[in-house]
Specification:
21% strand; 5 helices; 2 domains; alpha+beta; Arc Repressor Mutant, subunit A
């Protein structure tokens, strides 16, 4: 696979700031022609460096006023099943695996506290879940959805 160069990195950075930037705008930022930028963006998408383009919705404006993080510890034998069941939940936006103990961190958004409580209770019912700790998010200070981490 071809390594990306400085032009590709600058295109990616520009698109992270404005995913709707035109090829013309990108070309002026990176110093290439519109055609060269279009070809590079196409190749970056095809090779997986850019995973997609999407609209970033304001969770509160679409009725998801409650956001929480759950730390879910599982039995080693049921880890994959627990991850699959939790990942399939509509409320869940992110699932991260922790190094070491069979633990995942789950971010989920809800319309209200009752929905969050119901979700937490449903996690306890999944076979293999050992412990659940939850924290409601009070305020977000930094958020960068442009990197897939």
């Amino acid at each position: 696979m071809r390594q990306i160069d400085d032009y590709d990195l600058r295109i990616i950075e520009a698109l992270r700031k404005d995913g709707r930037a035109s090829y013309r705008k990108l070309a002026s930022i990176v110093g290439l022609s519109n055609v060269a930028v279009r070809d590079r963006v196409s190749k970056l998408v095809k090779r997986g460096y850019i995973k997609g383009f999407f609209a970033l919705a304001d969770s509160r404006l679409i009725g998801k006023d409650v956001s929480a993080i759950f730390e879910v510890e599982t039995n080693t034998n049921e880890f994959s099943e627990v991850v699959g069941r939790i990942s399939a939940c509509e409320e869940v936006t992110k699932v991260y695996e922790k190094v070491g103990a069979p633990t995942i961190f789950v971010h989920a958004s809800f319309s209200n506290i009752d929905e969050m409580q119901n979700f937490a209770e449903s996690i306890y019912k999944i076979k293999g879940v050992v412990r659940v700790a939850s924290s409601m998010i009070y305020k977000r200070h930094k958020f960068d959805p442009s990197l897939d981490v």
